[in-house]
Specification:
The complex is a heterodimer. By secondary structure, chain A is α+β, with helices and mostly antiparallel strands. Chain A is built from 13 helices and 18 strands. In chain B, β4 and β5 form a beta hairpin. In chain B, the strands form three sheets. Chain B has a nine-stranded mixed β-sheet with strand order 8-7-6-9-10-11-12-13-14. Classes of the chains: A alpha+beta, B alpha/beta.
Chain lengths: 444, 293
């Protein structure tokens, strides 16, 4: 635990260094594509005269100066399976983005979707030593959280305080400076498989890059695809990627639940490929160009050339009707959405005051998905696109880039995590010299 | 399973090799890019220049080439100075200047040190100030303002001409050759020529009787008249004292009488010393008058 605390703190330091240098890269390692954005930070712009938050929701402190996408290789279900391949794919993306940005990038913030994320809700209560809540008290209450046994080989990816309560008052965003007797905190902790994270870290190190932060892509996608009131009132973001479908539930601008279904667009493509007997590339093309989930009468007459390169003329000139294609795709999409429904139910999403659901990710572009999703998930479903940020090229504004864009927002304005607070003083090893050295190292 | 052997990568794989990736990153590093853009050409130029100049023979060739080119430019007729023209100096002084100027014409104007020439010319005694320039047409123009002799100074060594600030202008062979200039004498007289000149102006009514001024004890002046008469002037305000003597002389014909010295050194007590004969005569007359009583 202390080790993770230290490494996450080290990443935070690295992020600060990168911000000071002004350039940081954002890397979304997905199952179907790897996206790399190069960001330039030039300080927070001044607020407008009337002190309102201004355009772009105040996210104008950075600018995208390089963007590149490449087909992902060696990644399945959001996890790295062939490291050499993935490393080369990352190199391709980073190189292209650097070329576009004309600047060398040394720090990378990465996100990934797989590795079986699991959410835990933690809480703790402490009696305040003095009347006032200080930073040290906040750190103490965070440290007092009883960490559940999340299993060997798992690591904490996020640990964010989502709610503070002081005596009888709950729902405090920032309790510091307030007067009370008893401070309680609710914390959301997300754990993932350690080996997956280690593989990703190793992969990025092999590309001569420094990891300045790591995040779950469910979190990042929710960060960019949900608008502000949805994040505040409560909403679920469903990022339908290639290999996984990640779910994140937001409330009061904090992620309170995250999960992933190990199914995605690649499985739909696989079904088409198997059902029609065509190569995967053809299946992907057919899915993108002609796919859908709602069959109508006209679709029976809409014939699609499915192609093939066997050399057999008859075989390569086959056609299927669009209705048949929909018949292949729809069960799989339904299956994915049913699975999402199960996860949301398990999380108690139906108890939330607002049950907005936002579909994003590359696979959310399937024609008619919102209609199908509203039948399975509930009525409040919309398709989400990432927030617009400065300098983002048109090609990277689609829903497939929700997590990349969300990660840039995360890079610019990270939410408080557990490791942003110092370990409370009484937990320190009582070695004065060590503490002096620590202070010295942190401040010089 | 995919082949694990290296070197058989698919042709359409867009991934850069690790080396290319690193090279690109190096090239994007500002320091290295600047080094390649500016430092490397500089190094190459410096190295090639060093290699060329490593051989002594080539160094000499370059030096000779530079010297030749320089000489060829300097010796162009446009830059040559052929004549020296001297303005504002008499023939004798001009002759001196021609002798003293440290150049042999014709010469290139690059080789002429005008400041040195000017210093040499201005160092001559009769020259008050000099200006040297090269006039278009290859003429070295020397403009001279000569010192004008104001007095003749007689010393034990001989006669000298001084200008109005007491600076030596020339030696003089005979007093009669510059009879128009007043004569001063005495040690330290040359340092007070201005004072002497103002006394001489005041002594203009004496006209033909004035022989000269004499500096006494490096302190004050005596006006020496013919018949051995002297007017001893005080150190302070000698002109006023002289004018006073002249005024008395106007009324009482003082200087016409047989007076040897008019002593004005103490202004409150002007004193007249009679000559020997006059004293004898006066005593004789008193005796006659006394006995006559």
């Amino acid at each position: 635990m202390a080790d993770l605390y230290q490494s996450q703190r080290a990443m935070r330091q690295m992020r600060r260094a990168a911000m000071q240098r002004g350039v940081v890269a954002v890397l979304d390692v997905g199952s179907s594509k790897i996206a790399c954005l190069v960001l330039r930070f030039d300080g927070n712009g001044p607020l407008s005269e009337d002190n309102s938050i201004g355009s772009l929701a105040g996210q104008s402190g950075f600018r995208v100066i390089g963007a590149a996408t490449t087909r992902s290789r060696g990644v399945q279900f959001g996890e790295i399976t062939a490291m050499q391949e993935t490393e080369r794919a990352i190199r391709t993306a980073v190189q292209q983005a650097q070329k576009m940005a004309e600047v060398r990038v040394d720090h990378v913030i990465a996100c990934f979707s797989g590795a079986n994320p699991r959410s835990y809700g933690l809480d703790a209560t402490v009696d305040l030593e003095s009347q006032e809540v200080t930073e040290n008290e906040v750190a103490r209450v965070l440290a007092a959280c009883e960490v559940p046994d999340y299993g060997v080989g798992r690591e904490v990816l996020h640990a964010q305080p989502v709610n503070f309560a002081l005596d009888n008052r709950s729902g405090l965003a920032d309790p510091r400076g307030q007067i009370g007797h008893e401070l309680a905190v609710d914390m959301h902790m997300l754990t993932v498989d350690a080996s997956t994270v280690q593989n990703l870290v190793r992969c990025i190190q092999r590309c001569d890059l420094e990891l300045a932060g790591i995040a779950s892509s469910a979190y990042a996608a929710g960060f960019s695809a949900l608008v502000e009131d949805e994040q505040e009132l409560g909403a679920a973001c469903i990022d339908m990627g290639g290999g996984t479908t990640s779910i994140s539930v937001f409330m009061k601008k904090h992620m309170i639940y995250a999960d992933a279904v190990r199914m995605g667009g690649d499985h739909v493509t696989g079904d088409i490929s198997m059902g029609l007997g065509v190569p995967a590339a053809n299946a992907e093309r057919i899915k993108t160009m002609c796919g859908g989930v709602h069959a109508t009468g006209a679709d029976d007459r809409d014939m699609i050339d499915i192609g093939g390169e066997t050399g057999d003329w008859e075989h390569d000139r086959r056609t299927v009707s669009r209705a048949e294609l929909i018949g292949i795709m729809r069960p799989r999409v339904e299956e994915i959405l049913e699975e999402v429904r199960l996860r949301l139910d398990a999380a108690g999403f139906d108890q939330m005051p607002s049950q907005q659901i936002v579909l994003t990710g590359g696979s959310s572009q399937i024609m008619g998905l919102d209609g199908l999703a509203s039948r399975i998930l509930g009525h409040q479903v919309r398709l989400g696109r990432p927030l617009r940020v400065h300098g983002l090229p048109q090609s990277a504004t689609g829903p497939g880039f929700a997590s990349a864009v969300g990660l840039s927002l995360f890079a610019a304005h990270p939410q408080d995590e557990w490791w942003d607070f110092d370990v409370p003083v009484d937990r320190h090893p009582s070695n004065g010299l060590k503490r002096a050295m620590k202070w010295f190292r942190e401040n010089w | 399973m995919r082949s694990l052997m290296p070197g058989r990568r698919a042709a359409q794989d867009p991934a850069p090799s690790r080396l290319r990736y690193r090279i690109q990153r190096w090239m994007l590093t500002p320091g290295i890019r600047m080094g390649l853009k500016i430092g490397l050409p500089l190094c190459v130029m410096a190295a090639s220049a060093g290699a060329f100049l490593a051989s002594e023979q080539r160094r000499d060739t370059v030096a000779v080439f530079i010297a030749d080119t320089r000489a060829a430019i300097e010796e162009r007729p446009e830059f040559m100075v052929n004549v020296m023209a001297i303005d504002g100096a008499g023939p004798a002084v001009a002759q001196d200047i021609r002798e003293i100027v440290p150049v042999r014409l014709p010469d290139s104007s690059f080789d002429l040190d005008l400041e040195e020439i000017r210093a040499a010319v201005a160092g001559l005694d009769p020259v008050k100030s000099a200006e040297v320039r090269i006039r278009p047409g290859g003429v070295l123009q020397v403009d001279v303002i000569e010192r004008r002799p104001a007095v003749v100074w007689r010393t034990r060594d001989g006669l000298a001409l001084l200008d109005d600030s007491g600076i030596h202008v020339a030696e003089l062979g005979r007093r009669s050759s510059r009879g128009d200039l007043p004569l001063i004498a005495g040690r330290g007289a040359d340092a007070h020529v201005g004072e002497a000149l103002s006394i001489l102006r005041a002594a203009r009514p004496l006209d033909g009787r004035l022989r000269g001024l004499m500096r006494i004890g490096e302190r004050r002046w005596d006006v020496v008249l013919d018949r051995g008469q002297r007017i001893q002037l005080p150190a302070e305000a000698p002109e006023a004292a002289l004018e006073r003597v002249l005024a008395i002389s106007e009324v009482k014909d003082l200087l016409e009488r047989d007076v040897a010295v008019v002593d004005m050194r103490l202004s409150a007590r002007p004193t007249v010393r009679m000559s020997e004969n006059a004293v004898q005569e006066w005593w004789r007359i008193r005796k006659i008058n006394g006995s006559g009583q």
